Amino acid sequence: DAGILAGDFIIQIDDTPVFGLTLNEAVELMRGERGAPIVVTISRENTEPFEVEIIRDYINIRSVKSEFVDGVGYLRITSFNEQTESGLLNALKEIKSNSNETILGYILDVRSNPGGLLDQAVKVTDLFLSKGEIVSTRGRDRKDIKRYRAKNKDKINGMPLVVIIDGGSASASEIVAGALQDHRRAIIIGTQS
Q1: What are the pLDDT digits (tens) for 18-71?
Q2: Is 192 left (phi over 0), alpha (psi -120 to 50) or beta?
Q3: Which residues have a Cβ under 8 Å from the Cβ of 28 and sit 6 or more positions away?
Q4: pLDDT 10s digit of each residue in the chain, 193 long?
Q5: Half-sphere exposure of 30 (CA within 13 A, CB side)
Q6: Region for residue 184 given its phi and psi (left: phi exceeds 0; alpha: psi -120 to 50; beta: otherwise)
Q7: CA distance readout (Å), 137 to 118, 145, 148, 175
Q8: In terms of Cα–Cα distance, which of 105, 49, 31 is closest to 73?
Q9: The pTM is what?
Q10: How far apart are CA 125 and CA 180, in angstroms?
Q11: What is the number of alpha carbons within 13 Å of residue 102 lying toward its C-beta?
C-alpha cells in the first residue's frame, strides 16, 4: 500500500510532468520492469505535493466478483479481460455448490465497467443464451460483416436474469446488456449507459 488515496492526482512520473499527456501516454511512462522503482509526485487537497516511490509488479485484475444473497446469485464484472469468461463460469459453479437454499435468479452487474475484449463480451453473453445473434461487426466493405451467434446452452437454464448498468457501462458491457435485452433473456435496470 503506497498511501495513495482516492481523489489524489498524479502530477509527475519520475521527472516528467503529466500535464498535457493523454492517459495512454501517462500509463506508458509508468510501465517498466517488474521490481524497478518509479517515483510519482502526488497532489492532494490542502497538502503540499509529495513524492511516493512504488516498486513495479505484475497486476492481475480479477474481473469477476460474486456472492449469494437471499437466494440471488450476484455476479459483478469490472472489465472484460482474458479471465472474464472463466471467472464467470467459476462464480456460477461456486454459487451452485455453496447455496443450500433455492436459487431464485441472478444479477449481472456491469456498472462502471468500461468494456474490454469483444470476444469475452460474446462468450459472456453466450453463457446466458441458447441461440440467436449476439452482435455483428461491419467493415467499410458491405461484405465484411462478421456475425457472432450463441452456440452454447444457457448455463443458468432460463432462470431470471437482471443486468444492472449505469453511465460508466460502455463498449463490451453494452454489447452484453443489449444482446440479452434484444433476446428478452434479461431485464436491464439502472441508468443510461
Answers
A1: 998 887 888 889 989 999 999 999 999 999 999 999 999 887 778 999 999 999
A2: beta
A3: none
A4: 567 887 899 999 999 999 988 878 888 899 899 999 999 999 999 999 999 999 998 877 789 999 999 999 999 999 999 999 999 999 999 999 987 789 999 999 999 999 999 999 999 999 999 999 999 988 888 788 899 999 999 999 999 999 999 999 999 999 999 999 999 999 999 999 8
A5: 20
A6: left
A7: 10, 6, 8, 11
A8: 105
A9: 0.71
A10: 7
A11: 3
Separation CA 129–CA 105 (nearest Å): 15
Residue carrying the nine cell digits 518509479? 38
Residue 20 cell numbers, joined: 498535457
Cell of 119: 470476444
For residues 15 and 135, give the distance between their C-alpha atoms in angstroms, rounded to a whole number. 45
Of the candidates 182, 178, 157, the residue with the CA atom closest to the CA atom of residue 104: 157
Contact call for residues 52 and 38 (beta carbons, < 8 A): no
Q: How many residues does the chain have?
A: 193
